[in-house]
From TrEMBL:
Recorded GO MF terms: GTP binding; metal ion binding
UniProt protein name: Probable GTP-binding protein EngB
A Pfam family the protein falls into: MMR_HSR1
Keywords: Cell cycle, Cell division, GTP-binding, Magnesium, Metal-binding, Nucleotide-binding, Septation
One annotated Gene Ontology cellular component of this protein: cytosol
Cited function: Necessary for normal cell division and for the maintenance of normal septation.
Recorded family membership: Belongs to the TRAFAC class TrmE-Era-EngA-EngB-Septin-like GTPase superfamily. EngB GTPase family.
GO biological process: division septum assembly
Location of the EngB-type G domain: 22-195
Domain of life according to the entry: Bacteria
InterPro entries in the record: G_ENGB_dom, GTP-bd, GTP-bd_ribosome_bio_YsxC, P-loop_NTPase
Length: 195
């Protein structure tokens, strides 16, 4: 993608607010602080693009970005927000379930996992939801620059072991560092190759 024609489109709070399903889309999920905004910014080649999703009030929305006029990039904030009131969490989870099981143009979910920490219980929850929604998901390891080459294999082995129990998991992991730019072209190519 050229990157210069990506834009924040809208924040969606109900299924009725989704843009028309006229192009392929991919979604990004991850615990807060995993590096999701930074990765989306790196992918789209913009510096402020994903900010919107981190502003208070936007955390329970499905945030749509356009990507090169041919794809939607969907930011799914809101998991790992244990501090939110229960009704808010439940409303969000309902919307998330409806979105994941009802969006025909959704081709793949990318679940971001911090390379230093591996897969946590909250990650398992979203992965199980993706399994039951039959949405293929691919794990993107973030912040690879923070883990020495020699220590990576141990985390990767844990991730692979956990993924083996999820039928919707795509086996190949993507290793990224938004800081260094590692893995960003690979991820872009994966998205561009989906049809
Ligand atoms: P989000 O909550 O998942 O959207 O996380 P952010 O994108 O806001 O990132 C959380 C923190 O991790 C910020 O301080 C980022 O600068 C940092 N960060 C994100 N990606 C990387 C990376 O690839 N390498 C390093 N070293 N830090 C990163």
């Amino acid at each position: 993608f050229a990157g210069n024609n990506s834009d924040f489109l809208k924040g969606v709070v109900a299924m009725s607010g989704l843009p028309s399903a006229d192009r392929i889309e991919v979604c990004f999920a991850g615990r807060s602080n995993v590096g999701k905004s930074t990765l989306i910014n790196a992918l789209t080649g913009r510096t402020r693009l994903a900010r919107a999703s981190n502003t208070p009030g936007r955390t329970q929305e499905i945030n749509y970005f356009t990507l090169a006029d041919s794809h939607y990039l969907v930011d799914l904030p809101g998991y790992g927000y244990a501090n939110a009131p229960l009704p808010v969490i439940e409303k969000w989870q309902r919307l998330l379930k409806q979105y994941l099981s009802g969006r025909a143009t959704l081709r793949r979910a990318f679940v971001l996992v911090d390379m230093r920490h591996g897969i946590k219980d909250v990650d398992e929850e979203i992965m199980s939801l993706l399994d039951s929604s039959a949405v293929t998901f691919q794990v993107v390891m973030t912040k690879a620059d923070k883990v020495k080459e020699k220590d990576r294999e141990k985390v990767m082995a844990q991730v692979r072991e956990k993924l083996s129990k999820h039928p919707a998991a795509f086996p190949e992991l993507v290793i990224t560092s938004s800081e260094k730019g590692d893995g960003i072209p690979t991820l872009r190519a994966i998205i561009a190759g989906l049809d």
